[in-house]
Amino acid sequence: MCLTQLDPRLDVDPDTPLRRPGDVLLHDYMLPRDLSAAQLGRRTGVRASHLKGITLGTRRITPEIALRLACALEPTAFYWMALQWRFDLEKTQQQLTSRRASPKRASE
Q1: pLDDT at 98 (0 to 100)
Q2: How far apart are CA 107 and CA 102, in angstroms?
């Protein structure tokens, strides 16, 4: 295992399209391997309904899920968490930007 020293200015390429972590899981890992949520659930010990929620975008990848996915698929737990963190940061940034851009009501 190699350890990486993180640069405080670490960022992602803004030209890389934002994808939900569940889309990556489904389209890059499950479908090419012909894995159903039930099959991946048996391999990881994660309920199929929970995995289905991740692929639908109604559930997040938690550190525990990331560790379990890393045991069953090639990417590391850090990879899965980085996908989730990037998605969360981008969505939060969009929400903050839209709040700043929206006109304030007279009562505020």
Answers
A1: 87
A2: 14
Predicted TM-score of the model (pTM):
0.81
| Cα 81 from Cα 27, distance rounded (Å) | 17
Q: How many CB atoms lie within 10 A of CB 6?
A: 7
pLDDT, residue 16, reads 81
> Phi and psi (nearest 5°) for 26?
-70, -55
Q: Tell me, letter by letter, the H, E, C secondary structure of 11-59.
A: CCCCCCCCCCHHHHHHHHHHCCCCCCHHHHHHHHCCCHHHHHHHHHCCC
* Contact criterion met (CB below 8 Å) for 39 and 64: no
Amino acid at 92: T
Handedness of CA 44, 40, 86, 57 (dihedral sign): negative
- In degrees rounded to 5, what are phi and psi of residue 5? -85, 120
**Mean pLDDT per 10-residue run, the chain (108 residues)?**
66 81 97 98 98 97 98 94 94 89 64
